[in-house]
Amino acid sequence: MNNDNINSSLGELIKRGWNWIVFIIRLISRVGSFKSWFRALHQLIFILRNRQQPIQGSNPSSDLSSTVTSTATLTETRVEFYDSSKFPFVANLEANWQIIRQELNQLQGSNFIDYSEKFLYKNGWETFGLYAFGIKIERNCELCPETTKLIEKIPNLFTAAFSSLQAGTHITPRTGYLEQVLRCHLGLVVPDRCGIRVGEYTRNWAEGGA
């Protein structure tokens, strides 16, 4: 590898790291009280030291598709779509999807922030975090109380957020950053021709469906 390639790779690594820092700071700033902020910082440090192990949730609890994305720990990892009927919390989310969408519609655009990994997309991907790595984003949860109650019923909740893609946004193929994590999408605002591919399989979102 020549010096130009090394410098380019280093520059890209620094850029990605900076984007993550900005994303985390903006997210953590909405955690709430100083006590909550300190607890979140401690949790974040723990996660960075143990990146390969998913953290158990502390609460027991495109044409765009706006979605609620939640993750729960699994005992196995395979590249495919799972049967949602095997996870009881999914039915509860689907039964209350209109309540969730109503709270989404009440949010202001300024509440959303660009997703950190910008190398995966050019533009048009924004998120509104409710839980991040087991950390409750209290100020955001206060804006969505009913949605928060629903997601806190998910066993081993790890992360939960509204995810918004602008028309034409494309996210490049990638693998998850943690093993043994299930990612669940609940369609809330879904125009035509919105799809997601996992391995060799592609599915389309539907409003009210996971």
Structural overview:
The protein is α+β, with helices and mostly antiparallel strands and 210 residues long. The protein has a single domain (3-204), classed as B-lactam Antibiotic, Isopenicillin N Synthase, Chain (Jelly Rolls, Sandwich). It has 6 helices and 8 strands. The chain has helices at residues 3-28, 34-49, 88-95, 97-105, 138-143, 145-151; strands at residues 66-73, 113-114, 125-132, 135-136, 157-165, 181-189, 195-198, 201-204. A hairpin with a 2-residue loop joins strand 7 (195-198) and strand 8. It is globular. The relative contact order is 0.23.
Radius of gyration: 17 Å
Q: What share of residues are in beta strands?
A: 15-25%
Compute the number of helices. Answer: 6
The low-confidence parts are: 52-65
Overall number of domains: 1
Task: Look at the structure and give the mean pLDDT.
Answer: 77
Instruction: Please identify, by name, the CATH architecture.
Output: Sandwich
Could you state the order of secondary-structure elements as H and E?
A: HHEHHEEEHHEEEE
So, the CATH homologous superfamily? B-lactam Antibiotic, Isopenicillin N Synthase, Chain
What can be said about the biggest beta sheet?
Answer: 6 strands, antiparallel
Q: Estimate the global geometry from the Cα principal axes.
A: globular
In helices, the fraction of residues equals 25-40%
- What is the straight-line distance between the termini? 45 Å
Give a count of the beta strands, DSSP E runs of length 2 or more. 8
Estimated structural class: alpha+beta
Q: What is the CATH C-level name?
A: Mainly Beta
CATH topology heading: Jelly Rolls
